[in-house]
Design a protein that fits this description.
With 233 residues, this protein is an alpha/beta fold. The chain has a single domain, classed as Aldolase class I (TIM Barrel), CATH 3.20.20. Strands 1-2-3-4-5-6-7-8 form an eight-stranded parallel barrel, surrounded by six helices. Helix 5 links the parallel strand 4 and strand 5. Helix 4 runs parallel beside helix 5 and helix 7 crosses helix 8. The longest helix is centred in the first third of the chain and has 14 residues. The mean pLDDT is 95. The structure holds cytidine-5'-monophosphate (C5P).
């Protein structure tokens, strides 16, 4: 059964906690991203851990290996269960992150690689890398393979890339997919969305759901609908 991660994209502590209270034990993990972490700080993780929640800390780390290793140790001490790094930081940075996570033993965070930001199109990628890029799909797979060889536990990717990644990385890698919407649901600013069923069938094993639940007038009921959709797969 795939895990359900609720993206806690709230602007401050009170709104984040109000949402967690409304959702009860319905989420397997909460994703704390840059917005909430920059506002509320590391306490976002420790407070939610005290409430028994598992945390996906989406900091998208990208720095020299020594600095990233230090950040991973800090995140491990907070109790983050999943943590993101940018694949573009390179093999040595990724290895440093993975080794730092393993220092905490089995309770250390699992490291996930972000390949290409889904906001980037081939033209923008070409501008950054200084070479021709026809489409992002092969670049995502290439970066994911490199990150997996460097030791990551999995990758974050659009559900539309999940099948190719599952094929490239094999059955043991985690494939974590955001951009999930219930059939007929509002897309918001996401361009490439997928239903829970389609994402799981494509090989995703962790679904990140934000506004389909958090922007619903009744988030707890919306969460139940997402769960039902996942279980119906
Ligand atoms: O509200 P929504 O379901 O679109 O939120 C998805 C969450 O996943 C947000 O926190 C967003 O930043 C994150 N995310 C994403 N696409 C990625 C990586 C992360 O939507 N490629």
């Amino acid at each position: 059964m795939a895990d359900l991660i609720i993206a806690l994209d709230a602007p401050d502590r009170d709104r984040a906690l109000a949402l967690v209270d409304r959702l009860g034990s319905g989420a397997d993990h909460y994703k704390v991203g840059l917005e909430l972490f920059s506002r509320w700080g590391p306490e976002a993780v420790t407070t939610l851990r005290e409430r028994g929640k598992r945390i996906f800390l989406d900091l998208k780390l990208h720095d020299i290996p020594n600095t990233v290793a230090g950040a991973v140790r800090s995140a491990a001490a907070l109790g983050a269960g999943l943590l993101t790094v940018h694949a573009a930081g390179g093999s040595r940075m990724i290895q440093a992150a993975v080794e730092a996570a393993r220092e905490s033993g089995p309770r250390g965070p699992r490291i996930l690689a972000v390949t290409l930001l889904t906001s980037m199109d081939p033209h923008e990628v070409a501008g950054v890398w200084g070479r021709q890029v026809e489409s992002t799909g092969p670049e995502v797979v290439r970066l994911a393979r490199m990150a997996r060889q460097a030791g990551v536990d999995g990758v974050v990717a659009s559900a539309l890339e999940a099948r190719a990644l599952r094929g490239a990385l094999g059955p043991d890698a985690l494939v974590v997919t955001p951009g999930i919407r219930l059939p007929g649901g509002t897309r918001h600013d996401q361009r490439r969305v997928s239903t829970p069923q389609a994402a799981i069938r494509a090989g995703a094993d962790h679904l990140v759901v934000g506004r389909a639940v958090t922007a619903d007038p009744d988030p707890a009921a919306a969460l139940v609908r997402v769960r039902q959709a996942m279980e119906a797969t």
